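Before we proceed, please read the two lines closing this message. Let me know whether the structure tokens fit the sequence:

…
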Amino acid sequence: MLSGMIARFLAAVLIGLAATTASAQAQTQGQRATAVVELFTAQGCTQCPRANRLLGGFSREEDVLALTFPVGIWDYLGWPDTFAQPQFSDRQRDYSNALRVRGRFTPQLVFNGARQISASDWDDARDTFEERRAVGLPATAPDLAIMRLRNGRVRITVGARANAPEADVWLVAYDPGPISVRITGGMNVNRTVTHYNLVNRIDRLAHWSGTSAWFERAGCSPHCAVIVQERYGGQILAAAFVER
């Protein structure tokens, strides 16, 4: 009888632990992106408010990961960009080197890490976007998944891929917005600049060389994306994102 009571007690404990674990690990599954569009913008750039709206349009396209990276390239003109970060400037420099762009400029669009243009001409930008989306991500793309756990952490899995190029895995936290800032100095004085899919953090998780990988991280909010990208501003191999 005693052994039966102990067995029932242990069974209840195990069921409770399983329920607790299931609750903690409940998840929101993310989705793969078929295209990645990055806008390098600045609050002190006269053409950038319009380019920001263009990026907002791209962000509403199905299966597209559109991201805004503010840079402080025009801070010296009298208005320090309120969202610029050194890491964003570093990313733009990597693209300038990889895509053979002379210097840096805004507003700049980068498509799948493989093509860059000015965002000043909406028709040209839209045509390039459609062209790059039709081309898609490369055949060397690994299986990629991101999910948000109930405890707020995110879990990322990268599948194995034979003969894959050397790449990095990036974790990106961004706010879908819109986020508006009233400018009181510089070239856009007395204008309101609005941002969409505004990046607030980008972290390099690891180097990836074709083997399967698994990561779990905290602090990726409100929305979160993962990008597998050839090193030093190379082309993007795969991307996925998950909402809050």
About this structure: Confidence is low (pLDDT under 50) at residues 1-24.
